[in-house]
Amino acid sequence: MEIEILGCYGNSIKDYRTTSYLINDFLLIDAGAVTVSLDDERLSKIKHILVTHSHLDHIKDLVFIVDELVMMGKFNIDLISVKQILSIISDNLFNNRLWPDFTVIPSEQNAIIKLREIEIEKYTEINGITVKPVLMTHTVYTVGYVIKEGNRGFMFTSDTGPTQRFWEVARQEEGIEFIIADVSFPNRMESLAKVSGHMTLSMLIDHLDRYGLGKMPIYINHIKPIFIEEILGELSLTKRDNIKPLQQGAKMKL
Question: For 23-109, where are the alpha helices, taking DSSP H only?
Answer without folding.
Answer: 40-43, 56-59, 62-72, 83-92
